[in-house]
Design brief:
The structure holds two protein chains of two kinds. The longest helix of chain A is centred in the first third of the chain and has 39 residues. By secondary structure, chain A is α+β, with helices and mostly antiparallel strands. Helices cover 42% and strands 24% of the residues of chain A. In chain A, helix 2 crosses helix 3. Chain A folds into four domains: 63 residues; 34 residues; 31 residues; 206 residues, Thrombin, subunit H, CATH 2.40.10.120. In chain A, the strands form two sheets. Chain A has a six-stranded antiparallel beta barrel. A six-stranded antiparallel β-barrel of chain A has the order 7-8-9-12-11-10. Chain A contains seven helices and 13 strands. Chain A is extended, with a radius of gyration of 30 Å. By secondary structure, chain B is mainly alpha-helical. The radius of gyration of chain B is 20 Å and the shape is elongated. The mean pLDDT of chain B is 83. The chains are: A alpha+beta, B mainly alpha. The interface between A and B is large, with 36 and 43 residues.
């Protein structure tokens, strides 16, 4: 009997999909052949493990969704906590210890400074020398700064061919970016460049070819994480005809475009995506699609070659799903998605000014 | 239906991963656990993690065919969360490991041991899944996690028919099994 067929049978048996007759002969086979019986037992325990794994993943995803929804609806929120109470508590508890420590410290300090005045030579020479040393150390600092500047400019090693990729934008201020999976296809290294022209090295954290999404994380000591993101992420669907805009890098500087939601589904009725009427070019892929409230509703990923101005975007709820699976796979990647936009009431140009700092150009070094 | 009958029905629904039932539990009891954690040196994130883990314990219990809950769901969730949070505080060696009781507590040690065992197996499986590579990972996830049938999977991954997809799935399973048991027997 082939292993393959046996596993098929075991799966059928465990799921209870066998007819009584099949079941009878299967059980008879197990009774007659100890080796097969052993294999069935081992295989059954393994299949139980996978199905448990699947159950846990599904349950986790359900409670994650529920949490997001309830938070969005404001049913669960942050507790207003009296933070000061505890600090006062600690203070009153350790007041004595602090007082003793402080008096010991001050006595020691007095003693040491007394010793120093007693034993140090009375000449002012030392001071002069020290000043000079400070100047020379300043000089050294300037040199290293200059060296770092040059290093910074040539962070992308000369000689490697950089393919211009597309656009990405931040989902979590800790340096997590989202882009289209096809943008970084076949990449050996990925660099992202912000609107000021600074380049950062980024790692690919996860890729989902079905929704065409990828998550990058900036892994670069020069990167300074912003405190928060101005835009939010919308989980519910968007109305037809709603006006939308996008920012992206179809050329070497950031470009703004606007349009509207023209269909709720993507190419050939794809429900993961939606259709937008907007002018977009290669390089816009991976850019955010944002509504008038400053909420990201999707990620641009394709345009129809045969029609003008028809562009498809992956819906933003897919981002939530992907983030959940990343969090499950590695608890270190604790990505938090902000769903409240803080630029709701601003004019469009003010919104764009705030958003553009968080939209990055993706440069791909092919392997 | 009496209260206990109602709770039993809710539990069965939770065991079946029923979204409405889970949401009703969430709405009803999240505040209590949030209070417990946040007022005992925890953050909002801690509260969410503890509540969700307690929900996992409840789910595992509700899923087994011979489950029995001898107390109210609320008391159970509270007891589990309290125990989990105490454990976490002790691990982090934060000074205070006393939690004042807001509520009645039942013993949950056995259930938590079982939960730990399951979590361990889950983590080993997750590691093994991380190692099998593509397309195996997506294929197995599509079948066992997202519960797609073989012809849907064939379509997704570009196999000409369900049998070819099945064959590929079998090869992937063999690899996964090897990786899984290599860890599982060592652990």
């Amino acid at each position: 009997m082939e292993q393959f067929q046996l596993t098929e049978l075991v799966e059928k048996y465990l799921k209870g999909e066998m007819s009584p007759l099949e079941k009878e002969s299967f059980e008879e086979m197990r009774r007659n052949d100890a080796e097969i019986d052993q294999m069935v037992v081992e295989y059954a325990s393994f299949l139980e493990q996978i199905s448990n794994y699947g159950d846990i993943r599904r349950f986790k995803s359900t409670i994650y969704d529920i949490h997001q929804n309830l938070q969005e609806e404001g049913i669960i929120g942050e507790l207003k906590k009296k933070a000061t109470a505890r600090i006062i508590n600690i203070w009153s508890k350790y007041r004595r210890v602090v007082a003793v420590a402080a008096s010991i410290a001050s006595i020691t300090a007095l003693f040491i400074s007394g010793m120093i005045t007693l034993f140090s030579p009375k000449a002012p020479f030392n001071d002069i020398e020290e000043l000079r040393r400070k100047v020379s150390s300043l000089e050294k600092q300037t040199t290293t700064q200059r060296a770092e500047l040059t290093k910074f400019q040539s962070k992308i090693e000369p000689g490697v061919s950089v393919k211009f990729g597309g656009t990405s934008f931040m989902v979590d201020p800790k340096g997590y970016l989202i882009t289209s999976a096809h943008v970084i296809k076949g990449a050996k290294k990925v660099y992202v460049q912000n609107s000021e022209g600074e380049n950062f090295l980024a790692d690919i954290i996860s890729t989902d070819p079905i929704t065409d999404l990828s998550v990058l994380k900036i892994n670069d000591p020069d990167f300074k994480a912003p405190k928060m993101l101005p835009y939010g992420f919308k989980k519910s669907s968007t109305e037809l005809s709603e006006t939308l805009f996008t920012l992206g890098y179809p050329k070497d500087e950031i470009v703004y475009n606007e349009g509207y939601l023209s269909a709720m589904t993507g190419m050939n009725g794809d429900t993961l995506a939606c259709q937008i009427s907007i002018s977009a070019n290669p390089g816009n892929s991976g850019g955010p699609v944002i509504n008038k409230f400053g909420e990201v509703i999707g990620i641009l990923n394709a345009r129809q070659a045969s029609a003008n101005g028809v562009v498809f975007a992956t819906k933003s709820k897919n981002i939530f799903k992907l983030m959940q699976s990343i969090k499950e796979e590695d608890a270190d990647n604790n990505i938090k998605i902000n769903y409240k936009s803080s630029i709701k009431g601003l004019s469009r140009s003010q919104q764009v000014r705030k958003i553009q700092d968080h939209v990055y150009m993706v440069k791909v070094v092919l392997g | 239906m009496s209260t206990s009958e109602q709770e039993k029905a809710v539990l069965r629904a939770i065991g079946a991963n029923d979204k409405d039932a889970i949401e009703s539990i969430y709405k009803e009891h999240y505040g209590l656990i949030q209070h417990l954690v946040v007022y005992n040196n925890g953050t909002e994130d801690d509260a969410r993690d503890i509540f969700q883990e307690a929900m996992m314990v409840l789910y595992e219990k509700a899923k087994s065919p011979d489950f029995e809950l001898t107390c109210q769901i609320k008391t159970y969730l509270y007891s589990v969360s309290r125990r989990l949070w105490l454990k976490k505080l002790q691990l982090a060696r934060r000074m205070e490991t006393q939690i004042e009781n807001f509520d009645h507590v039942v013993p949950v040690e056995e259930d938590l041991d079982e939960h730990e065992k399951l979590t361990n197996q889950y983590l080993i499986m997750r590691t093994a899944m991380g190692k099998i590579g593509e397309p195996c990972k997506s294929l197995i996830e599509a079948f066992y996690v997202h519960q797609k049938n073989m012809s849907e999977i064939a379509g997704f991954f570009g196999y000409t028919n369900a049998d070819n997809a099945k064959n590929q799935k079998y090869k992937c399973l063999v690899r996964l099994k090897k990786l899984f048991f290599a860890q599982y027997k060592n652990g």
